[in-house]
Fold this protein.
Amino acid sequence: MTKYTEPKYRSIHEAEGNELEVLKEKVAASMWKPAFHVHPEHGLLNDPNGLAYFNGEFHVFYQWFPFGAFHGMKHWAHVKSNNLVDWERLPTALVPTEDYESHGAYSGASMEVDGKLYLYYTGNIKFSAEERSANQCLAIMGKDGEVLKYDKNPIIEGVPTGYTGHVRDPKVFRKGSMYYMLLGAQREDKTGEIIVYESKDALDWSFKGELRLNLDLPESCYMLECPDYFEIKGQEVLVISPQGLEAKQHHYQNLYNVIYALGKLDMENLTFDVTDYQELDKGFDFYAPQTFEGRNKERLMFGWAGMAEVEYPTDQEDWAHCLTLPRELDIVNGLLVQKPAIELKQLRSKSQSGVLTLDKGSTDLHSGYHSFELETSIESRESDSFGLELFSSETEGLVLEFDRSTQTVTLNRENFPALFGDEHGFVRSAELSIGDTVKVHAFVDRSIAEIFINDGEVVFTTRVFPMNKSTGIKLFTDKELTCTYTIYQLKSNNSL
Ligand code: FRU
C-alpha cells in the first residue's frame, strides 16, 4: 500500500537548507515569547508528554510540529531541568521515522521500570485525509539520557474490534503486580471511551476491555483524549480531555475541555466509580494536562496552554502555544485544588508590597513588568463588583471581575486589538463563594496569565497578545475595599 502523503507529514530530518534556522530567528524576535514558560523554539507545541522526575532531573516532553504554527507531523520535543525553573533544550526525543508511526509520534506518558524511563506513545497512521489507525509504541530512556525506540515496536498493533482509528494517548501505571494502560478511544458508534490493556512486564500487553465510568457525559461526546490517573492522599483521581461536550453556563466554554473525576478504580470489574467531577481549569487555553510525581512525591501537573482549531496571533510568526507552569495538585475539602509549584519562587527577583484602600473607581497597582507574579488579598464587605485588570494600558486590558450578587468570577479578554478565538466568545466564568476576602495569585508572562483564586479553588489559564506598553495592573471596585499585595518581577530563562 502506498503511504498517504501531504506536505505537513514531513519529519525534521527532511528540513531543507537553512529553513529551521530561518524559523528560529523569526520566532526569537517575537515580543510574545514567554520568559519562563516552556514553549517551542519554532513551530507548534501541544500536549505535554512523558513527564517525569527521573534520575534527579525533571523531564518534560511535548508534542511538536517543527515547521510552522499548524498541526502536522508530530515529534516529541524534550527539555529538562533540575529545579523546574531553568530548562535546557535537548535533542528531539522522538522523530517519527518508522512505518509504525508514519504520521506522527502522538501523545503518551512515562513510567520508570528497572531504572529506565519507559516512554509510551501512539504511532499515528493515516490512510487518507479521513481514515486512520493507531499503534501503541515504546521508547526507552536510560540514565545517560539517550532515547531509543523499542526494537519490537509496536507494542500494540492497531486498534481493538469495535473502535475507530482514534485510539491514543497511553497512560501507564502499576497497581499490585500488574501494569495497566489507559487509552483514549472512540467506539464505532462515535462515542468516547477509555479502554484498558494489561501487562505483567510493561512490554507485552493484552486488551482487557472498556473502563466504565459513571459520568453522565452527553452522547455528543465523541472522543476522550489523554486519560490520566493518580492518587493524592489516598483519593483516586481520573483526568480526561473529552471532545464534543456542550457548553453550559460556567462550564465547557471551550471547544475542548478537561474534566477531573474523584472516585475509585476497580480493575477487576473495570469500573471507575465517580463520586464527584468538575472542570479542571476555567480559562480559555487549557487542554490535555498530564501529571507526575515530583521530587517529594507531590503531584505535579503541566497542561497545554492552547486550544485546537483556534487561530492565534503568533501563527503569523510561525510559532504557537506554550505549556502552563508546573502546578501542584492537592485535595482540599473534597475539591482538587491547584497551586503554582513551590519551585517557582526561585524565579522571583525584585518585589514591591503595599496595602491600598480604594472607595470606588480604579487605581494602578503597578506597571513596567512583562513577566511577574502578583499575590493579593482583597478584603471587602460592601463591594458587589470589584477586581483586577492585567496587561493594562489606556487601550487594553484583561479583566478579572468578582460579582458578589451572583457569586461568580469572570475573565474577559475582549478588550485587545489582537483579538482571537472569537468563535468561542471572550468571557469565561466560574461559580465562587465570595466572602469578605478573596485571594488572587497570578503569574503573567508576556502573553500568558495563569490566575489562581482562593488558593487554587478556581484557576484560569489564558493567552493574550498585548501591546508592548500594556504592563499595568489595575484594581477596581464599586465600593470600599482594601487590597494587600506583593508584586515580584520574575526572571527570564534565557536558555529557552
Ligand atoms: C490532544 C491530542 C492527542 C494526540 C495529540 C496529537 O491535544 O489530540 O489526543 O495524541 O494531541 O498531537
Q: What stands out?
A: The pocket of beta-D-fructofuranose is lined by residues 46-47, 63, 74, 106-107, 122, 168-169, 225-226, 287-288 (CB under 6 Å). The longest strand covers residues 163-175.
